[in-house]
UniProtKB/TrEMBL annotation:
Residues 236-299 form the SLH domain. InterPro entries: SLH_dom (IPR001119). Pfam families: SLH (PF00395). Coiled coil: none annotated. The lineage of its organism: Bacteria, Candidatus Fischeribacteriota. It comes from the Bacteria. PANTHER family: ENDOGLUCANASE, LIPOPROTEIN. Signal peptide: none annotated. This is SLH domain-containing protein.
Length: 429
């Protein structure tokens, strides 16, 4: 068992490896990425005769990689040691007639995901959501809906992985209807998709909050492997009572909630059809910037930069943060005013979004002279370069395809705001 504790002495996590009283860890080395390399011997896996076992774990105790060197005689007493030299070497004791010396080189930072290649090395990817049998397939796990999780495993070792399997477990309040999955034999350097998918259900009665995420652990194994554990987190939909799965902007709104940009207009509603005011826009955009790049839109106490935005306005910190970041300049220069109650139009939204994208990632929303891409946005429109910037960045596609139009003066709803934000900052579930 490996235990990790907080500075106060509280247990942070615990992991148990092995299945026999004779399994033992001989050495442990913390790595520069906050993880650990543990080397020892096992009587539970492989040939079961004091096989040398080396695992690389991340800071949460999950296995990044594992490998073994097989002992062929039960009389051998093998040991393993991890060196902090560059490169690090792991060896097992041996006699010439029983076992060859097992040696593996680890990169200088002790962070290699391929510690050794003496056999199969399984790396699991997050199982994809397959809700194709749902009345509204959208790639989101809805409450009370049985959903498939389709796994994919890479083999980064040098030998074929045979009899590959996966086991799904969780401590969260969901139902795992099919917990055991099988995979095909996976050749070195290739991937295998699950032959039997996991099946899960998230009961609506178990929803702990508006924003519900749950974590599952996939344990992978094969005939010549040591088990490896991978944690994956999923978002549960049906978050807002006024946004049903069939709604056009449903996936954008769920992703916006999951990303922490919004919590809705009430604890149970999103109010998708309400228009977005300029002060509300400030919170949407500033919060998205901070989530994407910490420090890009830092808020603090309201200082009264704008004469019409007092400290009693709950959006003041976001408005002033956007001003300090160069995203907004106000609606009047003298006196400096913001017009917080003004409703956002699509053309002004394009400017705010494009500038925010550039602040977070320069080059992500390049602007140029107006090319009149849209039939209703001529070169005389002061927002044209920003509108075409977000169009070229695939944030928007327009309001009409033929002829291509943008509808620049149309007001932006909260539902449409979600699409602007998700496409601009590439948030995902």
């Amino acid at each position: 068992m490996l235990l990790s504790g907080e500075a106060e002495g509280q247990q942070a996590w615990a992991r148990i490896y092995g299945g026999s009283g004779l399994d033992r860890a001989n050495s442990i080395q913390q790595t520069t990425d906050g993880g650990y390399i543990v080397a020892g011997n096992s009587y539970s896996f492989g040939a079961g005769q004091s096989d040398v076992w080396v695992i690389k774990m991340n800071s949460s105790g999950d296995i990044d990689a594992s490998c073994s060197f097989i002992n062929t005689a039960s009389v051998v007493t093998a040991s393993a040691n991890v060196s902090v030299l560059t490169p690090a070497i792991v060896t097992s004791n041996s006699t010439a007639t029983v076992i060859d010396t097992a040696v593996v080189a680890i990169d200088a930072n002790l962070t290699s995901s391929t510690l050794c290649a003496n056999g199969p090395l399984l790396i699991s990817h997050k199982p994809s959501v397959d809700d194709s049998s749902s009345p509204t397939p959208n790639g989101i796990i809805e409450t009370d809906e049985t959903t498939d999780l389709a796994g994919t495993i890479d083999n980064e070792g040098i030998n074929t992985a045979a009899s590959v399997s996966g086991l799904l477990t969780t401590a969260d309040p969901i139902n795992i209807n099919i917990a055991f999955s099988t995979y095909p034999d996976i050749a070195p350097g290739t991937s295998g998709s699950s032959l039997v998918n996991y099946k899960i259900t998230a009961p609506s009665a178990n929803r702990p909050s508006t924003h519900w995420d749950f974590t599952v652990t996939e344990t992978t194994d094969c005939s010549a492997c040591y088990p490896a554990w991978y944690d994956f987190t999923y978002h549960v939909g049906n978050s807002f009572s006024d946004v049903v799965p069939s709604y056009l902007f449903y996936s954008y709104i769920e992703t916006l909630l999951h990303s922490g940009v919004t919590a809705g207009c009430t604890t149970s509603n999103y109010c998708p059809d309400l228009y977005v005011s300029r002060d509300q826009m400030a919170k949407f955009v500033c919060a998205a910037m901070q989530k994407k790049a910490g420090g890009s839109c830092t808020t603090s106490g309201c200082t009264g930069i704008f004469t019409d935005v007092s400290g009693s306005n709950i959006f003041c910190p976001y408005i002033e943060a956007l001003y300090n970041a160069g995203i907004v300049s106000g609606c009047s220069a003298s006196p400096l005013m913001y017009c917080p109650d003004g409703i956002m139009e699509r053309q002004a939204m394009a400017k705010f979004i494009c500038l925010a994208m550039e602040a977070v990632e320069p080059g992500s929303c390049s602007t140029a002279a107006c090319a009149e891409i849209f039939a209703d946005v001529p070169s005389g429109n002061i927002f044209c370069s920003f509108i075409e910037g977000v169009y070229n960045a695939s944030v928007v596609s327009g309001c009409q395809a033929s002829p291509l139009m943008y509808c620049p003066s149309v007001n932006v709803t909260r539902a449409q705001m979600s699409k602007f934000i998700i496409n601009a900052f590439s948030f995902s579930l």
